[in-house]
């Protein structure tokens, strides 16, 4: 393998709940997992029905052109099918962007404390990653624009960002896009966009008319509750989408996933419930951090990152009480933990366990 492949550090997934339960000697049902920014409501009933119906057809290959899901996305967002790329999770969209636009000798710009897949996708192409210092744990767009060099072909921006939950207002993103050279693809990763408060929302898809070098990446894994099925989508200029579709595996998304995603997209009621539950959970967690005297980073996502000092010790103490959160040392934040927002009772279990862990 090339040296740039050998140098890659694999993404570290969490342990399965069953394995953790065994290690900790506690029943699996009593475990509260708030580690992967999943939807605590599960999936919408409509998506479940569609997935179950689609199971009957799995002897056939899926529709590699994702005709029905693309049609639904086009109606929803007022775009054309040739502007769309459907991915096996939005990780696939990030990966396809790097496959289409990066190579040895080229570079990608991303922020420190940004999503772990950006350096992975960059390094896997043998391209160079330019990590820009963060500003208040979030993206410093001025510094990122300044970091673009002649070899740069991709800039990754997560808005909101994982693991910090930081958010850049739409007007600042627009100003950034206006500064970036047209041969540099700006990957705007909006995995958590459905959780934004009404006053934070902005219309990135409308920007495509002015910025043909923009790729908006979204997912069905978070607010739509389909993380295990793996569906994401990219919206871009037709030429960008075409290049990405050339390197995409012909049947990268399963038929069950396509059917569930299409149904989920139409379930606005479920989306609204997810966002509302998240808003309440955020209030609940923030109140607890305040009461416990802990520092936290205000988050626009479905998770929040808080400072405990001894993150390894506190994480262990939480685990012993059956509560799984995410240590983020790998993101350069060794004193912080990230907790996903759960159901009210799950949040309460986490808060109580945290109180014990800190006592
Ligand atoms: N982008 C960000 C910022 C994320 O946090 C995640 C999931 N952790 C993803 C993309 C990828 O999610 P998925 O592949 O499930 O769509």
Automatic annotation (TrEMBL):
GO terms for biological process: L-histidine biosynthetic process. This is Histidinol-phosphate aminotransferase. Belongs to the class-II pyridoxal-phosphate-dependent aminotransferase family. Histidinol-phosphate aminotransferase subfamily. The lineage of its organism: Bacteria, Pseudomonadati, Pseudomonadota, Betaproteobacteria, Rhodocyclales. It is an enzyme of class 2 (transferase). GO terms for molecular function: histidinol-phosphate transaminase activity; pyridoxal phosphate binding. It holds the Pfam family Aminotran_1_2. It catalyses: L-histidinol phosphate + 2-oxoglutarate = 3-(imidazol-4-yl)-2-oxopropyl phosphate + L-glutamate. InterPro entries: Aminotrans_II_pyridoxalP_BS (IPR001917), Aminotransferase_I/II_large (IPR004839), HisP_aminotrans (IPR005861), HistidinolP_aminotransfase (IPR050106), PyrdxlP-dep_Trfase (IPR015424), PyrdxlP-dep_Trfase_major (IPR015421), PyrdxlP-dep_Trfase_small (IPR015422). Pathway: Amino-acid biosynthesis; L-histidine biosynthesis; L-histidine from 5-phospho-alpha-D-ribose 1-diphosphate: step 7/9. NCBIfam families: hisC. It comes from Thauera aminoaromatica. The keyword Magnesium does not apply. The modification N6-(pyridoxal phosphate)lysine is found at residue 222. Residues 31-354 form the Aminotransferase class I/classII large domain.
């Amino acid at each position: 393998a090339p040296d740039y492949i050998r140098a890659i550090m694999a993404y570290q997934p969490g342990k399965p709940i069953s394995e953790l339960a065994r290690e900790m000697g506690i029943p699996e049902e009593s475990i509260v997992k708030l580690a992967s920014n999943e939807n605590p409501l599960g999936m919408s009933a409509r998506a479940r029905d569609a997935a179950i119906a689609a199971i009957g057809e799995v002897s056939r290959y899926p529709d590699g052109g994702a005709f029905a899901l693309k049609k639904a996305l086009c109606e929803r967002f007022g775009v054309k099918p040739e502007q769309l790329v459907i991915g096996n999770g939005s990780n696939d969209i990030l990966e396809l962007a790097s496959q289409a636009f990066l190579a040895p000798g080229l570079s990608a710009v991303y922020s420190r404390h940004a999503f772990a897949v950006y350096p992975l996708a960059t390094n896997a192409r043998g391209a160079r990653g330019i990590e820009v210092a963060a500003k208040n744990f979030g993206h410093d767009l001025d510094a990122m624009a300044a970091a673009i060099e002649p070899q740069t072909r991709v800039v990754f921006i997560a808005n909101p960002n994982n693991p910090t939950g930081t958010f850049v207002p739409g007007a600042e993103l627009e100003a950034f896009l206006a500064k970036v050279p047209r041969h540099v693809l700006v990957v705007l990763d909006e995995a958590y966009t459905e959780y934004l408060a009404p006053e934070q929302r902005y219309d990135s898809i409308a920007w495509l008319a002015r910025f043909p070098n923009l790729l908006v990446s979204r997912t069905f894994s978070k607010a739509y509750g389909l993380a295990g099925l793996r569906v994401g989508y990219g919206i871009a200029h037709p030429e960008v989408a075409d290049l990405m579709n050339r390197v995409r595996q012909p049947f990268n998304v399963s038929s069950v996933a396509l059917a569930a995603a299409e149904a989920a997209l139409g379930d606005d009621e479920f989306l609204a419930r997810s966002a509302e539950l998240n808003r309440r959970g955020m209030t609940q967690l923030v109140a607890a951090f305040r009461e416990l005297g802990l520092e936290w980073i205000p988050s626009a996502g479905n998770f929040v990152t808080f400072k405990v000092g001894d993150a390894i010790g506190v994480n262990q103490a939480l685990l012993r009480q059956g509560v799984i959160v995410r240590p983020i040392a790998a993101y350069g934040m060794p004193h912080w933990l990230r907790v996903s927002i759960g159901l009210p009772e799950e949040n309460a279990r986490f808060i109580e366990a945290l109180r014990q862990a800190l006592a």
